[in-house]
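We emphasize that the prediction below concerns an isolated chain of 620 residues; any contacts that depend on oligomerization or on bound cofactors are therefore not represented. The input was used exactly as deposited, without trimming of termini.
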Amino acid sequence: MTEAEQQPRSEFLRLFAYVRPHAPVFVLAVLLTALVGGLETVVTALVIPLVDGLKSASSDSLALGPAGSTGLTGFIRGLFPAGAAYWPMLAGTLVAITLVKGLSEYASNMLMTSTGLKVVTRLRRQLYEHILRQSPVFFQKYPSSSLLAHLANDTDKVQLGVSYLVADLLREGFTFLGILAFVFILNWKLTLVFLALGPIVYFVTVRLGRRLRHRSNAALRDTEDLYGTAQEAITGIAIVKAFGAEGFESRRFSRAAEQLARSQYRAAVVNFLSSPLLELIGMIAIALFLLYAQSIVASSEMSAGALVGWVVAVFRLYDPVRRLSRVQNQYQQAFAASTRIFSILDTHTEQTDPPGAQDLKPFASRIEFRDVTFRYPDGDRDVLHRVNLTIDRGEVVALVGHSGAGKSTMANLMLRLHDATGGQLLVDGVDVRTATLESLRRQVALVSQETILFNDSVLANIAYGADEPDADAVRQSAVVAYADGFIEERPDGYSTAIGERGMRLSGGQRQRLAIARAVLKNAPILVLDEATSALDTHSEREVQQALANLMEGRTSLVIAHRLSTVQRADKIVVLDGGRVVEQGRHEDLLERNGLYRALYEMQFDDTPSVRDPVPAVNDP
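Result of the prediction step, given as a token string:
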């Protein structure tokens, strides 16, 4: 068996593991589906007494004759004794079987759907939780549009496979086996001749299925591209409008949509080809049989009812074969989606707690970078090289340097978004890699350059992560962050919905909400990553005032391009090419005529320092 053939089977077994917790319901659905298949066979078998009864009635007699009255044919006839009750019994039996079959099919479909929804909900939740645990390296490899396609489109196809395709597969499979057994018993010689077409049917089904799987993968990739094109334009709508690029983006989307349509059309060509091909093969076989039917009846090998029953059964045998072929095609699409999902689940870049990890005690004395080196997994050089730095409790330490010097990387190591590839990062003498992630991140608050807010209320954004936020604590945090004023000016106050990414607020207002969030967390260690670099001077004054309150009594690691904002830091660390080249206070570094002085002289910024007193300003 080739690797390509083994992969779908292994994925099927992997998907089936999600069904095991629902095994009793699944087994019941399978039994009901088997009953449906069996009753389909019984309905087909009732053609024999129906035809023989009509033949006898035409001769004014219900004596059904001896021909073919033994074996299965005789048994079926014996269920309906000749006489006045013959037709009422036959009609009543058909109605009763149809009723039981319909109820069984409805119940099995609902049970399968319920199981499928539970399975896909678990899979979708597991996929989302797995994505949330990954490191930033993962999100550099997988764009957000691709991940959204996995969470929505791919899981929907898996649900289709678990809920409907399994139900169809079982129902049509049991029907096929039941009718096949029936025609074998009626005339095994004819059935063997008919089954000689099986290899041709198998070849057509498998060959087309493999091609459909390939084309379905292409369609799924094009769906990702379509999502990505739309997402980029919608999230960057301000730039789109500023550059008058609506037409350009519309053309980009049209090209992506047309490419997706072509991929889906190519998949449809294969998907809809199998049914007519199989129908043609089956009809050729039946046509050849009909030419032979007269001699069978003439030789009394089969009664007219048995012959018609065999023909009807063969016709009905084609239906499950055709539907199974369609299931095979949809199966290929479902497993193409599952392959993509499992490829994400099998990608591991997350930071995990090592065996025996201990909770980090409340921060008490110092943070130390000891010979810290870091290189990205796919990088060819060190981003940080033997960095040594000590930050005492209550100190404000500023990291400065050119873009790419390693400032943000040091902040990421502090949060354990990455682990150092060499050296140690110690908090109160404890290597952070030996502490639990939860206990470390509980002690660190982050205010970043890119303010991340959610499409929710002001209160929910400040109390982010709290299931039942304390409204009073949220308000106090907003007061400290100088955000209470503009919040209360709004009609809905703290219940105001701020829109996606906080688009209903100004840049300064969004940043102050982020500061309020950090205030509420009340962590002893604070990381400010370019917290004011994207603001104008007026907004920066407001935010600097809030930051001054936030930093009071906390140990702060400040990253800034504007050197005027960190002049009063207790220690300024200058990075260049991932190395610490200078450190000291502002005045000392200026006197050394090194890189810091060169950076300082390039800037003409009168922005106040975070340590300077800033007068309160009213929100515009």
